[in-house]
């Protein structure tokens, strides 16, 4: 899918990823640190968001690659954006793995298992690491993308206003 309603599909899909990945990361951290959230419906919402994020990520990357290939000579910032964007699938899959671990932890808490505290601590640490790393990566990808699209335009507007 390359164009939707006359707009590059990447431009539309990327906004979903920019919202869903950090939201999923924050919800995972909440579920990992707060057993009440894990026991309620929030863990299921988190899992659904992680699945959607994981499915949309390669679609967004493919749409971005199509857009990238239209450029005859992409500048360094656009190349950086494309390279960073290609890594997002690893972060999305990591978010999905954490969401699945949270669901497993939800069921493990029902059993009287002395290792439950250890599992909870491990999942909490991994959820925090994956969540923060995913948020940072979304920021890095988005910053490079915005720089590639807008930096020349802003420079042009600034120089035009100084005349």
TrEMBL record:
The keyword Repeat does not apply. InterPro entries: DUF2231_TM. The keyword Transmembrane helix applies. Residues 6-154 form the DUF2231 domain. Keywords: Membrane, Transmembrane, Transmembrane helix. The chain crosses the membrane at residues 12-35, 42-68, 88-105, 117-139. It holds the Pfam family DUF2231. This is DUF2231 domain-containing protein.
